[in-house]
Write the structure tokens for this entry.
Amino acid sequence: MAPEAVIRSIADAHKTMAGALTPILVEINRQLGCVPLSADAIIADVLNISRADVAGVVSFYSDFRRIPPGRAHTKLCRAEACQAAGGDLLAAHVKAKLGCGFGETTADGAATLEAVYCFGNCALAPAAEINGTLIGRATPAAVDAALLATPR
């Protein structure tokens, strides 16, 4: 099914829910790996809201992406507790390992690196997440092992 058809199907299925916009965006993001720009007009039409309303929600929440993440979707906590526990050294290692910086995806789509400002895992700092799996007391070796388990 074409992305636009998927978007319309999801929007139609959720349109009667109270506060339908966020659940629609979550489901689109889950199914397509992102919320493409083309979704804004479709969702706005189905919900009878402005495209600006849709874009505002997409841009507010960092988990909504406009392009799909790389196959190794890596998030590193950059909050104070994680930085104090060695997060800066971990970040330098991961950047070198993946070959991209924060907010970037490698040209081949193999990896995306994102900064996150708290997983709520401060007692186990530094924290990382790879493809949805949280890693507490993350070390370069632990992150490397998780990345090796990810198809590239």
